[in-house]
Structures are given as C-alpha cells and as structure tokens.
Amino acid sequence: MRRIFPFHIMFSWPFLLAGQSVPQHFSMSSPDRKLALSVWENNEGRVFYAFKANGYLLIDRSELGPDTGDKAPWKTITKRQVRRYWNPVWGKRSNVADAFNEAVIQKKGYRITVRAYNDGIAFRYDGATSLKERTTFRFPGNFTAWYYNGENRNIGPELLDDASGTRLPVMTIKAAAGQYMAIHEANLVSGQPMVLHTVKGSRVFTIQSQRANAWRVILYGSTPGKMVDSHLLELLNPDPEKGMDFSWVQPGVAVWDWRINGATAGGFQYTMSYASWVKMVDFAAAHQIKHLVLDADWYGPEFNKESDPLKGGKAEQVQALIRYAKQKDVGVWLYLNDVGGRQYPLEQTIRQYGDWGASGIKYGFMRGNMEEKNERTGLITRLCAAHRLMVDFHDGPVHPYGQMRTWHNAVTREYCHAQLDARRVFQPGTFVTAVFVNMLAGPLDMNNGVMDMEQKGRVDNPMPVPATITAEAARTLIVFSGATIIPDIPEHYLKHPQLLKFISAQEMPWKESKTLVGAIGEYIVMARKSAKDQWLIAAATNEQARTLRIPLDWLEKGCYDALVITDGKDADFCTNKESYTTTTRQVAPNQTIDLALAPGGGACILLHKTIHCNTGH
Asked: Rounded to whole angstroms, what are the CA distances from 212 to 113, 253, 293, 534?
C-alpha cells in the first residue's frame, strides 16, 4: 500500500513549448537537492542529459530517447513532485519513502519521462515503436566498474578505458571516493532485458537490447552500501492490481533437500526421500524455520518428458509430507523443471500445487532467449500468485528489476552463483563483490549457511567450501532474499548452537536494514531488524584478514545484550574453517564493537534489548 505524506501533496504544471525555435532545456533536482539533472535538445530535436551528485559530474552529455528519426522540437513539458510512503508486505524495511521529482517531455508520437529520486535518476519512453533506443551513458572519467557475469565470478574491477564489447547489468561504478553509481533497469514490461555495449577507450555505454518497455535507471550512493539499501527499482514498479491480496506471503529461512543428499549422521543417511524430509520438517519446526524446499526429481527425473509433475515419482509422498508439515506450521516448496512445465499443462500443475497446500515453487532450467524467459517468468509469477504460491527462479533466470513491488510472491531468484551449485564453489572475494553488484537488482538465492565445511559424501557436490563457518552463517543475513535457503542437515546445525541461534533469529519480514560499512570486493557489514524487533549484524571479508570497528550509534536508545560470534585467532578459509569464538557483552548506542575477521571469514552479532543496564552509559 502507499500513503501520502501529510505535509506534502502531488502537483504538476505544464510548460507549453510548441512553436518555439530555440532549442529547449531544463534542470531538475532530487527532493533533497543533492542530485542534479540537466536535460536539453539540440537543433535536430535530439534530447541529451547530464547528471551530477553534490556538484560532481558523473554522466556527461549523453543521449535520451527512442531511435525514431524524429527531428521535431518538444511540444510540452509537464512537471510534478510526489511525496509518499510505500509499505511493502516484505522487503528490506517496513516503511519506504517514495519521493521524486518528475518531468514528462512530449515529443511527436511519444513521450520521455524523467525522474529524480534521492538515490538515483530514471527515464523511460512511452508511445514509440522503434526497435532501438539512443540511450547512452557517457562517463567523464576513467572510472572503475564491476558487472554481472552470469553464474560466474563478476567481471571487474575494470577501468572504463579497458572495457570492450558486451556487458550485462547490474553495472556498478566507483567514480571517486564518496561517488558510486549502478546502471540497471526497472519494470521491464516487455522487450529484451537490458544488454550494454561499449567500444574500448570510449567510456561510452549504449543499450544493445531492443524493444524494451522499461525504466533506465542510474542508482547513486555516497557509499556502495547506500545503493544496497536502496528501493529505487521497486519504486519504479507499479503497485499490485486493485484487489490483489499478498498477505499470505511468508518470507523466511528454509531448509533444503538437495545438498543433504548423501550426508550421514548417527547412522542415518540422508536422501531425497520421505524419511529425510520428515527429519528436516521436525528440525525446521523446532527452530522457527518457516519452510522446506524439495528440489529436483521428486516427481521423476527432471529432464525426462515422461516425468509427470502431478502424478510421477513420489507425488503421493509429497502430498502426505505437505499435510504433515502444515501440522508443524512449516511450508513446503516444490521444484518444477521447465521440461515438466511445458510437457504438462502449466496452469493445471500450478493450481494443483496450490490445492495441495504447497507454499512455493522453485522453477528451474527455463528455456528460450531472455525476452522469452521474461515473458514466461511473468506468466509463472502471475499463476503462482493466483494460487497463493511464492516463486523462486533458478538456472540462468532473467535479472530482477523490482517486480517484488507488484508481485510480492516473487521472493528470490538465482541471479548469482549459488554456493556449491553446478559442482563449483565461489571464493570469498566473489561474495563481497556480488552483494554490491548482483544484489542491487533484487533478492538473491545464494544458498549460504553451510555448517559441514568439507561436504564429504554428498551426492551432488562433495567439495570443500572456501569460507570460515562464521562467514557462512553471516552470509545468510547479508544476502537479501525472501527465501534464505540453507543447505545442510540438522545435525550439523545442532553441533553449532550459537550459529543456529543466529540463523533462527532471522525472522522476516525485516523492519529495517542498514549496510553499515563496505567496500566492493573487500568486505561488508549488514544490520537487519527482525519481525520481532531484534537486531542482527553480520560481517564478511574477502581473502584478506581485517579488523572492522562497527559503530552502534544507529541503534535505538537503551542497553543491549550482545551475542558476538567471531572467527578464532587461527581461523582461515583454507586451513582452519571451523575455528570461532563466542562471547557475550552488554553494549549501548554510544559504543563500538571491533570485529577481527580471518581470511575468508566473518562475524555474527545478535542484539537483545534489555532493561538491566550495566554498561555505565
């Protein structure tokens, strides 16, 4: 829902420009006046823009608009200011300011809408039928950039002069100390998802993709963490249709059957079977974990066209499991491969899963080009919403673009390399890069939270995880997702009760999120406030050890009992992964906490507000 600020109103005013021979121009700023946008036309009717933040030029003379060949001048400009709130069903925080200044330029046959928010600018083109667009991003300096790179290590850091050829968004840019940007898109209604292109040495990026009906977005932050905390992409998407109800959406932590396959504990071997599923449900129920995700092959071999997603394999056992889990207040997600989704009636399958009482669908290996994938992703999301199912897209999905505002059931997707996926692991430096690149697009399913760091005996990927155990726990909080899917067996979590306590305390929806400090490719510290008003803090670093001083001045007044879990003095992501220490202390907002992170390490902090103060403050 949205709610208007009581002290502001929306208003607009037109400027009539028709018949004027002098090329037109105007300037606009963000509501806080820190961002400035200049827009003008030349003698041939082409539209250009430049973008500054706090007086620093970030985008120089770059073009806007569809490639129509239109040379007519602007007809009118209509401006308005909007000040309101958005209250999402779930997200990074419960109350989001939706404030922007807008200008709509009416051209012959189409219009250009430009918006300035406090954390970025955006523009879109409506009414044009051209295949291509003239949108460019011309950078005035040899800035440093990082890019999404599929289920692989991100491209970057790369100087803009060295960039050549195709690049995929999100494109994150460091222009200078205190000056960060990211290029992406929002509300991709139709057309090809954004693809960028550049010529080496030009420092100019164009949009190579075609026919897109979407916002072009430049996120801005004085720190990279400011962009992580932004809601700009969601705000550029519309509210749900009137009458749509998403109150049933239950974000939260989920256990998973794919990675447990082959693990043994106490003489029991875990498999993707009913007996193992029941043990996972019982564990989830005992530790405030909301869901169990069933992965591939439960209805038969996932790529076999004869595998019936309604009747095949263990379908009857799955229905019995859903009934059992419901008694324990645990939801069950069901995997659906695109083969089964196409070979059998899709709507009937999704409706049946809803009727069984499943809580979500994990959809894998969607075929088609990215434009086709985007259309099918939208179809599946809508069908899932109609049958009260959350949805998670895996295996090369279309990038997120803020659709969780319209479709609250679109809780996560594998827009990253998930840990241990595809028989590969990612390195610590990849994690602390992806959170500043991939995660700017939206919620990620990265499958962190491994407790058995060697993974011996696992059927799918028996590879050691290159992280400390503390870092793996910390990553579950750092990664923003409506379904935090953790991959290990109950016994390994129970061996580490304090780390389990930290994971179990991640009760969503979040009331607040803050990236406290961070540097792209180096480290990040995230704080989130749970649905039960408990603050959690997590830190992660790359392959280098470091000590971070964490200020607590953002906390509400009072005293807090802190459970602090840090890497042991001899911890190392290669040689000693499970060494950690646990301490308790009392803290107050005028204090700091020093965290010593091992190479590839992390830290977890759980804060509980108390009336019994002994800090002396």
From this structure: 15, 35, 34, 42
